[in-house]
Amidase (Mesorhizobium onobrychidis), 457 residues
Amino acid sequence: MDLVFSSTIELAAAIRDRKISAVEALDAHLAQIDRHNEAVNAVVTLDREGARARAKKADEAQARGAALGPLHGVPFTLKDTHETLGMKTTVGFPPFADYVARKDSPVVLRLKAAGGVLVGKTNVATMLADWQSNNPLFGRTSSPWDLSRTAGGSSGGAAAALSTGMTPFEIGTDMQDSIRLPAAFCGVYGLKPTEHRVSLAGAFPGPAGAPRSVRLMSCLGPLARNVEDLALILGIIAGPDGSDTDLAPVPVEDMPKLDLKTLRIAFAPSFPGFPVANEISAAVESLAEQLKSAGATVEEAKLPTLDLHDDLTQGGALIGMMLEAAQREPPEEPTPVSRWFEALARRDRSILAWDRFFEGCDVLLCPVAMTTAFPHCEPGTPIKVDDREQSYWMLPAYGAVFNYSGHPALSMPCGHDRDGLPIGLQLVGRRWSESRLLGIARAIARLTSGFRRPPGY
């Protein structure tokens, strides 16, 4: 059994069946971190002693016949944004360099209650505000497929650690493609759930007593090396928690087994006015043809009649208003409340337009990002896409459309480009339908190469 590239489900089963111990699983992952982390710089905080103590307790609990959770003894890392008791949470921001929360966030509590063994934290963009994971505290994270390129952001450390066998799963945050883009760049799976599906409480450190500012468009979701693990972790972390009052009491259903012949799939090789590499749009078209041959009903998407560029602008404006409200000293001319309600009304129109779109299909297949992993650069530097320079700020466009609309979307690996870099494609579904979206992804994944281990790991 290759412990570091086993799935979360396989690891949990092996520990439960006493084929391996929790300590053995932990030691294998620590050895992988020691072997490869210096090059990719994915794991930035490591709690060896604490993790070993937790793994030993897991083995002791099993020996005395205690009830086992679905993650019993499974080691894991977390993006360096989740508040964790006794472990630093820095978001790559010097003022938070030594910040230690007084309690675990609800998501961390649930993972620990399920039996998971927290090992450490993974690298992020400073304050989660870029699509490269680089910050003054820990430096930059590189793609395991090409160290001269970025692993993406802001969940780049999470995706790189997962891709290289340092952790079997991760929990990212996604306000503008920040789970899906790095998942695509590193060749793993990443799910952005429906907005208000997973608690945001404790997902971002803030001054004690300050009101929570990020209430819209941002989501927490799992990254994994297969769809089954995504479903397992979503079932653990989703749902009301007594802290985040925005959460909807919508149950997470079991992931269904679906026949491709029953599915209606819309595909879009690109969105109007959005740049995309030819190899990525070709991958969309190729997979669409394979799905059609497999018996699915496949049609090129008739996208909603929305100005998607304006949606991105409006989404950015909403983010700006939330951040403005979080400032300790508001600007001299703060945004009037009427502007906030106008912005929400504008957003409602887009949400409803996409709701109507999904009345005619089960899923939308489209790009995750305009390019595969690009060379490290200063934020704002134009990015070459098929030898043409494109705006850096369009990097998350295909994903950010669905942060604005709130619909669930996942990134799945689908082959490699001419440079050997992973291509990730995006599947988008109806709101509150993550389980069905995951079932669709599992059915489609049989036609793709799925996760592939990067060379040398």
